Amino acid sequence: MTYVNETNAVEVHHGTRGGGIRKLAAVSAIAVHGLAGATNASVTNNWITWDAPASDSYQYVAFNGFGQAGYDYTTTATGTLTMADSSTVHVRLTGEVVRPDTYGDPTTGPYYGPSGFSDNGTTVSNYWSQLLGSGTSAGSPNDGSAFLSDNITSLPSNGDHIGLIGAGATTQTIEFFSDAGFSNPVAVQNLLILVQSLGNSGTPASWTFNRDFDILSDNAGTGSGGLTKTNPSAGDYVLGGSEGHGAIQFTGVFTSFSWTVSAAEAWASWNLGGTNVPAPSAVPGAGLAGLATLGLAGVARRRRR
Question: Is 90 left (phi over 0), alpha (psi -120 to 50) or beta?
């Protein structure tokens, strides 16, 4: 994807006549290419493979909510993610990983989590594609369409996911490294998160991220509250949900990001992935194309003079 900075657009108006025409043509071509690329680019999605935490690493936390007395969780998980350039990134999660429970296939529900790791058999391959209520219309509630978009055209085939309640650890931090020893941070971009069951119809919930993001898709069409985004203060980007399923994509380049859980809930689950397509807000849009069009019109008027 080609990115355009504002300097080129400014040069259109302040350069020489000949130079201005050449630069303007370049900006116009880039603007059109950027818009077409966002629509026609071949999308690839890669999803993390989590390593199951050691069985003796879990601890208990009392939690008198939603009919449960407490649960087991561990504070660290690691995994590997193949990026769009085919490089391998080593990922470390510090936060809350709720102990896997065996509730069977997610198509049979009603509870089927909260964590699952393909390397020890506590998940099923169709977890994300056949979650209960994961459609975008009432007629097809379990087809996984709530997670799909222009930037996400395929879902995890290993079914990995992290269960999150938020009573044991409210802050979740993801770090990226170039080595398996987690000593060399590496910058990443175009990161995705799949979100399942954030909040419920009676008790909305929210996660506050320290990185900006776009909502790519959600299940609001099924009658749930779907997912919402607010920015209540500088540096705080809040994802809200009322039984929200969907996907978000982060903007910018970073070596880590984190989020906090507003309040503990029955449970939610999430998973990490990547795409080769920029987030919608990072793609040159109609504003840039319009600027180029106005510039061409100005050049035409000058030439007529």
Answer: beta
Token pair in block for residue 100: 């896997």
Give backbone dihedrals phi and psi of 294, rounded to 5 degrees, phi first: -65, -40
286 pLDDT above the threshold of 80: no
Out of 18-22, 207-211, 279-283, the most confident range is: 207-211
Chain Cα centroid distance, residue 137 = 21
| AA letter at 123 | T
> Mind listing the pLDDT tens digit for each residue in 58-109?
999 998 777 778 899 999 999 999 999 999 999 999 999 999 874 445 555 5
Q: How confident is the model at residue 114 (pLDDT cuts 50, 70, 90)?
A: confident
- CB contact burial 263-295 (16+ within 10 A = b; e otherwise): ebbbbbbbbbbbbbbbbbebbbeeebbebbeeb
At 16, the amino acid letter reads T
What region does 4 belong to: left with phi over 0, alpha with psi -120 to 50, or beta?
Answer: beta
Q: Dump the DSSP string for 56-104.
A: GG-EEEEEEETTEEEEEEEEEEEEEEE-TTS-EEEEEEEEEEEPP----
Please answer whether residues 160 and 80 qualify as being in contact, where contact means their C-beta atoms are separated by less than 8 angstroms.
no
